[in-house]
């Protein structure tokens, strides 16, 4: 497995990974209506190329297959962070996070912050993040619980 920056050609794989992970992993903690809103079937995969290219997006590449990704914004916000449904609990997320934190330190950031799903909260806690607050977020008529979390660097 190699951790590298996102390339435009990764967009379809990254979007599909997001969709499949939400539908099959996050569905443990959210209702079917919530995951269908979060990762709709009509997801516009091409839009991912633009979004991922505007951030420091790291992918875990295993022989050309993207098995995880995470996005760091220049202000220290970690936006999307997902590991392939078939590669959970194998250290993929830890390696992606390591690249993100190294970049944050290179940028001189003093903290990282994110809004973690119920599913992702334990991972971020293992990486040293603390819960700032539990939140309720509304998207397309569904309300989701997530957690504002942060870590000082």
Tell me the series of helices and strands, N- to C-terminal.
EHHHEEEHEHEE
- Please state roughly what percent of the residues sit in beta strands, choosing from under 5%, 5-15%, 15-25%, 25-35%, 35-45% or over 45%: 35-45%
- Spatial separation of the terminal alpha carbons: 26 Å
The oligomerization state is single chain
Number of helices: 5
Shape: globular
Roughly how many Å is the radius of gyration? Answer: 15 Å
Q: Considering DSSP H and I runs of 4 or more, what fraction of the residues is helical?
A: 25-40%
- Note poorly predicted spans: none
Query: In order across it, which strands form the biggest sheet?
Result: 1-2-3-4-5-7-6
Which secondary structure elements does this structure contain, and how are they paired or packed?
Elements: E1 2-5, H1 11-24, H2 32-38, H3 46-53, E2 56-62, E3 65-72, E4 77-83, H4 92-106, E5 111-117, H5 121-126, E6 130-139, E7 142-152
Q: Can you offer a commentary on this structure?
A:
The structure is a single chain. This protein is α+β, with helices and mostly antiparallel strands. 33% of the residues lie in helices and 35% in strands. It has five helices and seven strands, in the order βαααβββαβαββ. It has helices spanning 11-24, 32-38, 46-53, 92-106, 121-126, and strands spanning 2-5, 56-62, 65-72, 77-83, 111-117, 130-139, 142-152. A seven-stranded mixed beta sheet has the order 1-2-3-4-5-7-6. Strand 3 and strand 4 form a beta hairpin. The protein is globular.
